[in-house]
Amino acid sequence: MIGLSPLLERDSTVPLYKQLYVYIRHQIESGKRQRNEKLPSIRELSTFLLLSKNTIELAYQQLIAEGYVQSRPRSGLFVLALEPVMEMVPMVCKKDSQGGPGQQERPPLIADFQYGDVELERFPLAIWRKCLMDAFRFESRQVLGYGHIQGQKELRAQIARYLQASRGVECSPDRIFLASGTQQAISLLCQLLPQIRVVGMEEPGYDGVRTVLANHRLTIVPIPVEADGLSVEALRRSRADAVYVTPAHQFPLGGVLPVGKRRELLQWAEETGGLVIEDDYDSEFRYQGQPIPALKAMDALDRTIYLGTFSKSFMPAMRLSYMVLPERLAGDFRARLESYSQSVSPLLQQALFLFMKDGHYERHVRKTRKSYQARHRTLLHAIHREMGERVGVIGQKSGLHMLLDVYGRESTELVNRALEHGIRVYAPSRHWMNPEDCPDSYVMLGFGGLEEERISASIGRLKQAWFDDRT
């Protein structure tokens, strides 16, 4: 028995896979689908709902990625247990005409500008599925065991070739170490490089990395980000022995560190014996000007640790990042890593190796770059059309997010008013070490997971929420 009867709006601008995903997610969150309950197979649900198998698979993949269901080999998809959460409290609105308190439910969420969402509609599922199946044909110990502590050598060789071609970084596979995400990579650096004790951190900067550093009891020194990037003078005064930077696309302000400051940063490393930790998290997506080579590519003295990830360019569910260590650190790091197990599935590593070897990854990056560029252009045009001089755009040259400065307004009010109109936007204050230092008028818009039509319509709603409906 199928037991799933969603009311799907086939003429809606919301993709069918998203409608199905939201329906099943709600069933799980509301308790209508119990822990360990099996979901219908892709074929069964495709036949029952008269939808393509690709649509069903996209919905299921999103549920897997967010931890609502689990795929069990040769058994199917099963609902996972959820932690209890507080129910949403209805919004309290202004008093009604009789003078008593009135209440209204928030409207359905129409668009979520969450940073980190990526495009799934054009994901090459059929090719990726074939790579996964082909991975099973390799020697069982290679793909079903624990795997090499650094990661599969053939995959590391593919990554090395890709870095040389796309970012100008030349390195051997022996200097590449795989990890299950950037935060785990940072955690390993904290544990296995004892010389890192005081870390300079861009201010503002990625709070996910800051949290890991704090949890390892490292001293964090905020280094101000100026109009042209990280203040190297402030770094010199900090006495830091390492600095974490995002030079290709500063997070969250979006600036690109100019070549002059890159040289100053490398000079600081040479003079102090410090390390530069370069997080190149979304360098594939640059929309204006020529790409600047990675900081690592300029580092003749080899004092830079390079971090890369497949979460933005491929899919977050892969949970695969990598580090390129300086030659002088790689040997000791490898020795200390011997007692650890590789956290990335060898099966997924083998599948990704096949995907990259046959050229699918670079083709996928080219296609998604064009798609994100179109979404980026649509977002900018809609902002200028609907809001004009009432807002400023920050960090618009690259990446999958930008900041809006809504002049004279306060982010809490802006976030709440947007929700009243079915749009979710975010205050970026958590990326400041002291959140009160974040300008009150800033909001963050991540656009990677939204189609162009939805972006354009949503900005129209934000204009109504922020300007037309003010009382």
UniProtKB/TrEMBL annotation:
Amino-acid biosynthesis listed as a keyword: no
Q: Which organism is it from?
A: Cohnella boryungensis
| Alphabetized UniProt keyword annotations | Aminotransferase, DNA-binding, Pyridoxal phosphate, Transcription, Transcription regulation, Transferase
Coiled coil regions, renumbered to chain: none
Q: What is the name of this protein?
A: PLP-dependent aminotransferase family protein
- Ranges of residues in domain HTH gntR-type: 14-82
UniProt family annotation = In the C-terminal section; belongs to the class-I pyridoxal-phosphate-dependent aminotransferase family.
Highest taxon listed in the record's lineage:
Bacteria
GO terms of molecular function: transaminase activity
InterPro entries in alphabetical order: Aminotransferase_I/II_large, HTH_trans_reg/aminotransferase, PyrdxlP-dep_Trfase, PyrdxlP-dep_Trfase_major, Tscrpt_reg_HTH_GntR, WH-like_DNA-bd_sf, WH_DNA-bd_sf
Family matches, as Gene3D superfamilies = Type I PLP-dependent aspartate aminotransferase-like (Major domain), Winged helix-like DNA-binding domain superfamily/Winged helix DNA-binding domain
Concerning Pfam families, the annotation shows: Aminotran_1_2, GntR
